[in-house]
Amino acid sequence: MRALRILLIVVVILGGLFVIADRLAVNFAEGEAADRLKTTENLTATPDVSIKGFPFLTQVAGGSLDDIEVGIKDYEAAAGDGSQKIRIDDLRADMKGVEFSGDYSSATASTATGTATIAYDELLKTAKSEPTQVAPGVTANVVGLSDGGNGKIKVTVEATVLGTKLPEPVSVLSSVTVVDGDTVRVKADGLPKFAGVDLAENRVRSITDFQQVIDGLPGGIKLDKVQAAPDGVEITVKGSDVRLAG
Fold first, then answer.
1. CB of 142 closer than 8 Å to CB of 208
2. ∠ CA(45), CA(50), CA(53), 5° rounding?
3. Distance CA 126, CA 211 (A)
4. In angstroms, rounded to a whole number, what is the distance separating the alpha carbons of residues 21 and 243?
5. What pTM was estimated for this model as a whole?
6. Rounded to 5 degrees, what are φ and ψ at 54?
7. Cβ(178)–Cβ(170) under 8 Å?
8. Which residue, 43, 71, 201, 226, is most buried by CB atoms nearer than 10 A?
9. d(CA 187, CA 219)
10. Alpha carbon distance 176, 152 (integer Å)
């Protein structure tokens, strides 16, 4: 009985040491991965990296990790031709089946899903914010974007008719969708009228409808879905063979 008791104590101690060593190793790995991701994506701040699953050391020995969560507070993605940037807030991605090279210089996830937010003031940069002629004597421009409820965006348009600015802006509810995995499209559900003036649909839509191409998301992930929310449009992203580093 005494020998069994001693054996159990030794097993408990060794198990505790293994857990401590495992947690120290995972903390070190998270820091290294965060630094590598910061460099790879040219981030201004170090991202959050959390390696899930236990034990970590046996996953490393097998050459792959089950689950890694990545959080990037502010990410600047290329917009359109790449000459401009659009800020994406609170990008969080869950990477599954992460395999890495023998020297740990590169890592690739088999799949990734995530969420992020594009603030309305960022998306507004895409809309026509300068007065544009939509008919003889009539100019209009988008002056605001906000939550319209039920997943819609409220697009607020200011107009000038025959040199006189209308006293109140006109608002229209718009649907927001993802096109081709890299474009956020805003399209008015109906057409506004300016002081009762009937305008050609294509002229009005040249103001109310717009889209924003978003390229260069981390690791090559793509836009999946988008929906209007109180603070901006909430996007979901997904991808396969997503590169974390290297």
1. yes
2. 170
3. 7
4. 28
5. 0.81
6. -145, 140
7. no
8. 226
9. 29
10. 7
Q: Shortest CA distance to 68 belongs to which of 94, 36, 30?
A: 94
Tell me the two tokens of residue 221. Answer: 């992930």
User: Residue for token digits 């605001």?
Assistant: 144
Q: Is 16 exposed, middle or buried (0-12, 13-18, 19+ CB in 10 A)?
A: exposed
Q: Are 169 and 177 in contact (CB under 8 A)?
A: no
| Tokens matching residue 201 | 């649909």
Cα distance between residue 88 and residue 179, in whole Å: 18
Contact between residue 141 and residue 157 where contact means Cβ atoms under 8 Å apart: yes
At 117, which amino acid appears? Answer: T
pLDDT at 15: 47
Mean pLDDT per block of 10 residues along the chain (246 residues) reads 49 51 71 80 84 75 80 82 80 86 72 92 82 80 90 89 81 92 90 68 83 83 92 92 73
Q: How far apart are CA 47 and CA 37, in angstroms?
A: 7
With contact defined as beta carbons under 8 Å apart, do 195 and 161 qualify?
yes
- Cα–Cα distance between 84 and 99 in angstroms, integer? 33
